[in-house]
Amino acid sequence: MDSLSIENQLAKYQSTLQAIQQAQGLTSASVTPTDASKFSDVLSQAIGNLNSNMDVVSQDTQNVITGKETDLGSVMTRMTEAQLALQTAVQVRNKALEAYNDLKNMQF
Fold first, then answer.
1. Distance CA 88, CA 95 (A)
2. Which range among 8-12, 63-67, 70-74, 98-102 shows the weakest confidence by mean pLDDT?
């Protein structure tokens, strides 16, 4: 098959899909460049929050060692929150890499 034939089939499939969605009352969400920038903003903010959590834990650890912080319970709570945030970030990264590898290994 040549690329023109594939493009025609894809266009026909998309128009058929849109007709079915309209018949069922569904709306199709289109991806715009602003959606992509919003995602990158959210991702950057999440990474920034993770980094600030790790900085707080590092400072709390130093404060406990030097004796500036006496409330060990609150330090342990912040440490647990930072640990959970880091584990979540690692799992999100793993899922993103897995999805990327799945897309990379697809055959067309």
1. 11
2. 8-12
- The rounded distance, in Å, linking the Cα atoms of 29 and 1 is 30
CA angle 69, 73, 76 (to 5 degrees): 90
pLDDT of 2 > 70? The answer is: no
Tokens encoding 76 = 């342990």
Q: 3-state class of 95 per DSSP?
A: helix
Please state the pTM of the whole predicted model: 0.58
- CB 57 within 8 Å of CB 82: yes
Amino acid letter, residue 55: D
> Is the Cα dihedral 101, 102, 103, 107 positive or negative?
positive
CA distance readout (Å), 106 to 1, 100, 103: 18, 10, 5
Q: Within its chain, how far is the Cα of 64 from the centroid?
A: 34
* Residue 84 confidence class, pLDDT cut points 50, 70, 90: very high
Beta strand ranges found along 7-98 (DSSP E): none
